[in-house]
Write a structure and sequence with these properties.
The chain has helices at residues 13-25, 36-45, 62-71, 87-95, 108-120, and strands spanning 5-9, 29-33, 50-54, 78-82, 100-103, 148-151, 156-160, 166-170. The chain has 184 residues and is α/β, with parallel strands linked by helices.
């Protein structure tokens, strides 16, 4: 059975370790990088079925890294993660052909579904996707005083800060428009 190889790029050690541990338990082979330069080195050495890039990296943004990956001819699905969503970054992700754009803090189980869908979108066999997803996984961010919870069918994320303030943010899901066939 071939395991899915995942590249995680984030400058925060906590996030890298959390995602490496979680996805390893789901039977992924996970490599991590703390900067875009190291990520590009790993991409030259190995082939990945999917990647998670943080939007804010030290020397270049996750969107710029995504553009460099595309310039190298790679069609590897990339999921961009951000705690600082903007319309410009969502548009940049779409233009860079990101597989998805997710907000931090996130639920690990939902992120695992997003990564599995991205990896499977490029013809990775189902054997390479995670064999299981836990029924209920506590958000890892709760230890940092935050909780993410989906509310209703509107696909909103409620973020509760340590002071009890509630902020609602729409989860941005990128979809590509299919070209319309011309009718004769």
């Amino acid at each position: 059975m071939t395991k899915t190889r995942l590249l995680v790029v984030d400058d925060e050690l906590f996030v890298r370790e959390l995602l490496e541990e979680y996805f390893s338990k789901l039977d992924y082979v996970v490599d991590t990088a703390d900067c875009a330069e190291r990520a590009l080195e790993l991409l030259e050495e190995r082939e990945y079925q999917a990647a998670l890039f943080d939007l804010k990296l030290p020397e270049m943004s996750g969107i710029e890294l995504l553009q460099q990956v595309r310039a190298l001819g790679s069609s590897m699905p990339v999921v961009l993660m951000t705690g600082y969503p903007t319309v410009d970054s969502a548009v940049g992700a779409l233009r860079g052909q990101a597989a998805d754009y997710v907000l931090k803090p996130f639920r690990l189980q939902e992120l695992a579904g997003t990564v599995a869908a991205a990896a499977n979108s490029v013809g990775v066999s189902e054997d390479a996707s995670p064999e299981f997803l836990p029924e209920r996984q506590e958000p890892a961010w709760e230890s940092a005083g935050m909780e993410a919870a989906a509310s209703g069918n509107q696909n909103r994320v409620r973020q509760v800060s340590g002071r009890g303030r509630v902020e609602s943010v729409r989860r941005l899901r990128l979809t590509r428009r299919q070209p319309q066939s011309s009718r004769s």
